[in-house]
């Protein structure tokens, strides 16, 4: 076990997201799209994991693993279900959750937008509307006014580059793009609007427009958060694969990085940290992506524990700010793969920290098997299963494997400080 690299301030956490976990997020754009015909979503989110109800028990699960951080999102659609109508009970709920984190020794890592937005926002131009940055800044301000004094880190937007990553890697079949367009057009008609858009189902021909819009929103959010509390670390999280090249593949690798990551890594130079969300390694050759021999994850790429360290290294090289691993995990129905993958990935990350890359913490995605967007409940990334009828949580062996990693690193720190 590594003894050299991770500081005692290192955050060990899990990452969750409101829509995927809480259930019945019925005032949101994603809920509306799940119930649109046609829909790109395999199934509706419905009650999800009933996390809105069972949040305290879920915090207990995280604390029971020996963690000291918990990432969750505040659902804008719950807080402002109609334009200009704020729901005090929703703010009460999230305030209780922040306090619940603190009571259990968990640093609250708050995401201000994890893809989902209010239905009214989606039907009124979404992120590309002229007033979108101001509307999002208002939401950030009301959240900060309520409990911003007690949170540890603020993530403005979750993976604003996800669609570029999916399209650059041809992760979705061509027919998915057609269904996406049909779904958004049907949603606009059903909403009585000229347009309908949502953060993680963006048409291919609107990518540049949305990147510019997300950038404006991020800056406005950062300003609103800092206005309430200047010392709170603020950043954006991006989806980032570990892009590596075999001889002759460097040009393709660099083009992928430029198209998918570099805008946000440069933007992060004005932030306090960059959030890295890594799930796979992509190998580039002179003629395209190279198939590597080895055991595959559920995304169809070879399991590569070193991918996180590689993504972290590149993110810091370009952004020049510390890295917070806001998500890392493995999509697989075989939990033995996860139980082996997490310790191996953390060891590679620890070596990267030992080599000088500043990393603030590690959040595993995710605490529970939950709603995975267009894939519904078929994709498993959790440390616990959730009974779809009773909503009981049951730990997988990987939960204990992660807890063992955390404990061994903390013991190493204690032993070192005792010398």
Helix and strand composition category: alpha/beta
Overall average pLDDT: 96
If helices are DSSP runs of H or I spanning 4 or more residues, what is the number of helices?
Answer: 15
Main β sheet profile = 8 strands, parallel, barrel
User: Beta fraction of the residues?
Assistant: 15-25%
Order of helices and strands: EHHHEHHEHHEHHHEEHHEEEHEHEEEH
Main sheet: which strands, in order across? 1-2-3-4-5-7-10-11
Number of distinct beta strands? 13
Question: What is the radius of gyration?
Answer: 20 Å
Q: Oligomer, anyone?
A: single chain
Helix content: 40-55%
Structure description:
The chain is an alpha/beta fold and 419 residues long. Helices cover 44% and strands 15% of the residues. It is built from 15 helices and 13 strands. It has helices at 18-21, 29-34, 51-64, 76-79, 88-103, 119-122, 132-147, 162-168, 174-191, 207-228, 250-260, 262-267, 307-319, 335-354, 397-418, and strands at 11-15, 69-73, 107-111, 153-158, 234-239, 242-245, 273-278, 281-285, 288-289, 323-328, 359-365, 384-386, 393-395. It has an eight-stranded parallel β-barrel with strand order 1-2-3-4-5-7-10-11, surrounded by four helices. Strands 6-8-9 form a three-stranded mixed beta sheet. Helix 7 (132-147) packs parallel to helix 10, helix 13 runs parallel beside helix 14 and helix 14 runs parallel beside helix 15. The model has no long low-confidence stretch (mean pLDDT 96).
């Amino acid at each position: 076990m590594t003894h050299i690299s991770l500081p005692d301030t290192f955050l060990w956490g899990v990452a969750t997201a409101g829509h995927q976990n809480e259930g019945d997020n019925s005032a949101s754009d994603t809920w509306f799209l799940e119930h649109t015909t046609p829909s790109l979503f395999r199934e509706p989110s419905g009650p999800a994991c009933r996390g809105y109800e069972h949040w305290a028990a879920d915090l207990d699960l995280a604390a029971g693993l020996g963690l000291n951080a918990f990432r969750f999102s505040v659902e804008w659609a719950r807080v402002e279900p109609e334009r200009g109508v704020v729901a005090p009970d929703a703010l009460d709920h999230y305030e209780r959750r922040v306090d619940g984190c603190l009571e259990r020794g968990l640093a609250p890592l708050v995401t201000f937008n994890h893809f989902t937005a209010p239905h009214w926002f989606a039907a009124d131009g979404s992120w590309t509307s002229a007033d979108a940055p101001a509307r999002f800044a208002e939401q950030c301000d009301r959240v900060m006014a309520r409990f911003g004094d007690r949170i540890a880190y603020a993530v403005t937007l979750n993976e604003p580059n996800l669609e570029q990553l999916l399209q650059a890697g041809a992760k979705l079949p061509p027919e998915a793009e057609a269904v996406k367009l049909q779904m958004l057009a049907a949603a606009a008609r059903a909403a009585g609007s000229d347009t309908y858009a949502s953060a993680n189902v963006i048409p291919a021909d609107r990518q540049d427009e949305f990147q510019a819009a997300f950038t404006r929103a991020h800056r406005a959010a950062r300003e609103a958060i800092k206005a309430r509390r200047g010392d709170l670390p603020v950043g954006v999280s991006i989806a980032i694969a570990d892009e590596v090249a075999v001889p002759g593949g460097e040009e393709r690798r660099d083009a992928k990085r430029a198209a998918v990551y570099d805008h946000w890594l440069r933007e992060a130079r004005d932030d306090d940290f960059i959030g890295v969300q890594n799930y796979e390694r992509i190998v580039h050759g002179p003629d395209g992506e190279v198939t590597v021999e080895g055991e595959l994850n559920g995304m169809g790429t070879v399991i590569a524990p070193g991918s996180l360290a590689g993504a972290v290294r590149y993110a810091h090289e370009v952004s020049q700010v510390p890295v917070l691993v806001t998500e890392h995990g493995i999509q697989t129905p075989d939990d033995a793969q996860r139980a082996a993958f997490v310790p191996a990935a953390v060891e590679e990350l620890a070596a990267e920290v030992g080599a000088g890359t500043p990393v603030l913490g590690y959040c595993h995605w995710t605490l529970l098997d939950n709603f995975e967007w267009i894939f519904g409940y078929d994709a498993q990334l959790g440390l616990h299963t959730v009974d779809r009828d009773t909503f009981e949580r049951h730990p997988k062996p990987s939960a204990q494997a992660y807890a063992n990693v955390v404990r061994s690193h903390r013991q190493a720190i204690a032993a070192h400080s005792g010398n």
